[in-house]
Amino acid sequence: MLAAPINPSDINMIQGNYGLLPKLPAVGGNEGVGQVVAVGSSVTGVKPGDWVIPANAGLGTWRTEAVFSEEALIGVPSDIPLQSAATLSVNPCTAYRMLMDFEQLQPGDSVIQNASNSGVGQAVIQIAAALGLRTVNVVRDRPDIQKLTDRLKSLGAEHVLTEEELRKHEMKNFFKDMPQPRLALNCVGGKSSTELLRHLARGGTMVTYGGMAKQPVIASVSQLIFKDLKLRGFWLSQWKKDHSPAQFKELILTLCSLISRGQLTAPACSEVPLQDYQRALEASMQPFVSSKQILTMC
Question: Catalytic amino acids?
């Protein structure tokens, strides 16, 4: 193993409250990148020196070395940045599928999302920009809000708003200058998701892929009847079950080409040596963290 991030889903899995739990005893970590050291005589898909990432969750990436079957791994180009390879198989895949699978969006259409500084949020901003989509990005207010706004805009965010700004009456005029979003991406739940629904175009879809507020999604009856809004959920593990390994590999290579063209970068990361994993775990569970903790093994 070369590097592996700490994601919220990794923490949820350890806590035992995730939709997919490994058999115990288990190694933590659902994604990362490793380098092939040696292969068995019948292995044809990868060779020593190749970079590989896990094909599925639950492989246990927080370790220095492991032996896996060829089917458990996907080869990726070794000329992309290490942090991009280590954070490739969860957040960017989720972002790409949500942008492609729920609404037939065209260049110029807009998307609204909360938790916009999360790993998925940063990937949504960049992939949307590459597709010619406009993004309205909602974040929680914080002391360094201007710094965060500047960073998200540097990734391609058209608008960055706080949760409070989204609730203001002036937002009615906001969508005179751009089309109302047909797609909302919700990682928070509670009041935040209710606000996203309020700004969706008639017939639009809100996709929920996380619940950071640990509160239910509340949609008003009028939104469902008069605006005919659709509420959907997305879980990458389920998408992978519904599609072939070849289709997942195709998704990975599509994202790798965006990385190679400079249209998709890794989220802001802090590299921590594996032996300091406790420090990294503590840092990953702090509020308002805009930097993903990445365990490095080499």
Answer: 18
